Amino acid sequence: MIQNFLFQWHITNQCNLRCSHCYQTDYAQDLKLETLLSVLEQLNQFRKYWNARAHINLTGGEPLVSRNLFPVLDAVTESGMTFSLLTNGTLLRKETAQKFSEYQNLKYIQVSLDGNREIHDQIRGKGNFDKAVSGIRMLKKYRIPVSVSFTVSRVNQHCLHEVCEICRKEKADYFWTDRMIPFGHADRKNCLSLEEFRQFVSELAKEAQQNHKLFRRTFVKTGRALQFLGGCSQGIYHCEAGDSFFTIDEHCNLLPCRRMPIVIGNLQKENLLDLYLNSEI
């Protein structure tokens, strides 16, 4: 029996950035608080039915844009579930970081960093590298665990070592990377070829060799899909999509994964537990 469920929950698709590799194409939706709380109650009842733990990765869009973020976090806390936040980092301020530090059920905050200043700003907009790094520093000031996410493509594959070094300098707790997926705004011509990907994960394995060196505070993760091809040794990735992992998108659609946009049902109209037990998908 499954003992741990993971939900990626897009509480809004509003965003302050327009990144060139983003899978999102619509930025208008911001759900009402009562709708979000109804979905959260379904998640909580679902994990109680299985007598299991559940963790929620809250994202968007940009979750810090949502007016409902902190009321939702308060409700998640009351439910007994844990959460993390996935953000572009540009809106993290002292007051926000201080608020986050008060949540005992917060596991980490993920900040996206897609290259050095030049490349990151090419992908995410001028000035956003400095804002993201400033956000990381603010989180560390309040002792909030930080994970840095790097979406690799032909645009930034050469930046891996430099970004890892930035993470180490800023004392980020974790670094992980995954491939750009060609839908939404992402251009297929920027996807890595098989040989380019093999070379990239070979370099990733070298970065991970520093995990156990003294004073190398950033742990480089290498457990994502196909990363074993480059000699990464943290295990072969096993996809849990549709089993113990689900995505709830900004329209309350239930998906196996955000990268697998197959709609199982809609949680405004259908019940999560019923869908899990009875859906043909």
Sum this structure up briefly.
By secondary structure, the protein is α/β, with parallel strands linked by helices. It is 32% helix and 18% strand.
In words, what does this structure look like?
Strands 7-6-5-4-3-2-1-8-9-10 form a ten-stranded mixed beta sheet. The protein is built from eight helices and ten strands. The longest helix has 17 residues, at 33-49. Strand 8 (245-248) and strand 9 (253-255) form a beta hairpin. The two termini are 20 Å apart. It has helices at residues 33-49, 69-79, 94-101, 117-124, 128-141, 160-169, 194-208, 272-278, and strands at residues 4-10, 53-59, 82-87, 106-112, 146-152, 174-179, 219-220, 245-248, 253-255, 265-266.
Helicity level: 25-40%
What is the H-and-E element order? EHEHEHEHHEHEHEEEEH
Mean pLDDT: 92
Radius of gyration: 18 Å
Number of helices: 8
Percentage of residues in strands: 15-25%
Tell me the structural class. alpha/beta
Net shape: globular
Work out the number of β strands.
10
Strand order of the largest sheet: 7-6-5-4-3-2-1-8-9-10
* Distance between the first and last residues' Cα: 20 Å
Biggest β-sheet description = 10 strands, mixed
Poorly predicted regions are none
Which descriptors apply to this entry?
10-stranded mixed sheet; globular; alpha/beta; single chain; 281 residues; 18% strand
Topology record:
Elements: E1 4-10, H1 33-49, E2 53-59, H2 69-79, E3 82-87, H3 94-101, E4 106-112, H4 117-124, H5 128-141, E5 146-152, H6 160-169, E6 174-179, H7 194-208, E7 219-220, E8 245-248, E9 253-255, E10 265-266, H8 272-278
Parallel strand pairs: 1-2, 1-8, 2-3, 3-4, 4-5, 5-6, 6-7
Antiparallel strand pairs: 8-9, 9-10
Helix pairs in contact: 1-2
